[in-house]
From TrEMBL:
<comment type="pathway">
    <text>Protein modification; protein glycosylation.</text>
</comment>
<keyword id="KW-1133">Transmembrane helix</keyword>
<comment type="similarity">
    <text>Belongs to the glycosyltransferase 31 family.</text>
</comment>
<dbReference type="InterPro" id="IPR002659">
    <property type="entry name" value="Glyco_trans_31"/>
</dbReference>
<dbReference type="Pfam" id="PF13334">
    <property type="entry name" value="DUF4094"/>
</dbReference>
<keyword id="KW-0808">Transferase</keyword>
<dbReference type="GO" id="GO:0008378">
    <property type="term" value="F:galactosyltransferase activity"/>
</dbReference>
<protein>
    <recommendedName>
        <fullName>Hexosyltransferase</fullName>
        <ecNumber>2.4.1.-</ecNumber>
    </recommendedName>
</protein>
<keyword id="KW-0464">Manganese</keyword>
<feature type="coiled-coil region">
    <location>
        <begin position="65"/>
        <end position="92"/>
    </location>
</feature>
<dbReference type="GO" id="GO:0000139">
    <property type="term" value="C:Golgi membrane"/>
</dbReference>
<keyword id="KW-0175">Coiled coil</keyword>
<keyword id="KW-0333">Golgi apparatus</keyword>
<keyword id="KW-0328">Glycosyltransferase</keyword>
<dbReference type="Pfam" id="PF01762">
    <property type="entry name" value="Galactosyl_T"/>
</dbReference>
<feature type="domain" description="DUF4094">
    <location>
        <begin position="7"/>
        <end position="91"/>
    </location>
</feature>
<keyword id="KW-0472">Membrane</keyword>
Length: 305
């Protein structure tokens, strides 16, 4: 049995209806999945948004950390300046009290020059005595007329009273040009030795300046005195070299800093500090070192000067 033939008009209407139905279905599917691109790949806008928020928050946090670090450094500088002012004030009051009580006053001087030396440096000391450093009556004359005190600075050996100490005793008896410190000599204790020298000299002489110089340096006393005189009226004077350098945190390298973490982030630098074979400080700086000497026992010289 043959069916009834379908007209062309009906076929056309059916095609249009099918097309419209397909278009409607596709539109709804697209709206239900807006994160699907034309090539079939998914785009997770929510994850992108969260990642951007995390990155922004991280940058904000790092910025705040940096600001805090700068603020702490500024605060430390302010505290250091206030401590120095307090130390100078204490020294002034202490000096006034001593005078009022009629105690023996310190020996007056223009400058105390401490020549840092060691037990093994006899030839160096003899070289200085034969060149620029006065000896005997000339040494006394320079002290009396110019107010310039010159002393070789040395502590004692690990075995007090031993051969090394007796050799220095004999040399002192001959030349009278040593300042003995309550300090055990050692290469790794040079910063401590310098600090003790300033404190000791400050307790013996009331000088305008205190100089530290190594025993392999030849001085022109006239030029040194003239240079120091130009700075007499200035407070808290330091004359000499300053340096800074990286804090070495890696173990095994030369000059490794065991407490590197105290100086900030890895790769940080030391703040500028006194260094070199010769430098001079004024009375108020020597007072600061003397008063704070006990609290600086375990600290390098750069932390106190």
């Amino acid at each position: 049995m043959r069916g009834k033939a379908v007209s062309g008009k009906a076929i056309f209407v059916l095609c249009v209806a099918t097309f419209l139905a397909g278009s409607l279905f596709s539109s709804r599917t697209w709206n239900l999945h807006p994160d699907i691109t034309s090539d079939g790949r998914g785009v997770n806008h929510d994850c992108d948004h969260k990642r951007k928020l995390v990155e922004t928050n991280t940058r904000d946090i790092m910025g705040e950390v940096k600001k805090t670090h700068v603020a702490i450094q500024s605060l430390e500088k302010t505290i250091s300046a206030l401590e120095m002012e307090l130390a100078v004030s204490r020294t002034s009051r202490s000096g006034s009290k001593t005078t009022a009580e009629g105690s023996d006053s310190l020996k007056k001087a223009f400058v105390v020059i401490g020549i840092n030396t060691a037990f093994s440096s006899r030839k160096r000391r003899d070289s200085l005595r034969e060149t620029w450093m006065p000896k005997g009556d000339e040494l006394k004359k320079v002290e009396k007329e110019k107010g310039i005190i010159l002393r070789f600075v040395i502590g004692h050996s690990a075995t007090p009273g031993g051969v090394l100490d007796r050799a220095i005793d004999d040399e002192e008896a001959e030349y009278k040009d040593f300042l003995r410190l309550n300090h055990v000599e050692g290469y790794h204790e040079l910063s401590t030795k310098t600090r003790i020298y300033f404190s000791t000299a400050f307790s013996i002489w009331d000088a305008e300046f205190y100089v530290k110089v190594d025993d392999d340096v030849h001085l022109n006393l006239g030029t040194l005195a003239t240079t120091l005189a130009r700075h007499r009226s200035k407070p808290r004077v330091y004359i000499g070299c300053m340096k800074s350098g990286p804090v070495l945190s890696r173990k095994g390298v030369k000059y490794h800093e065991p407490e590197f973490w105290k100086f900030g982030e890895e790769g940080n630098k030391y703040f500028r500090h006194a260094t070199g074979q010769i430098y001079a400080i004024s009375k108020d700086l020597a007072a600061y070192i003397s008063i704070n000497s006990e609290s600086c026992i375990d600290m390098p010289m750069r932390m106190c000067l």
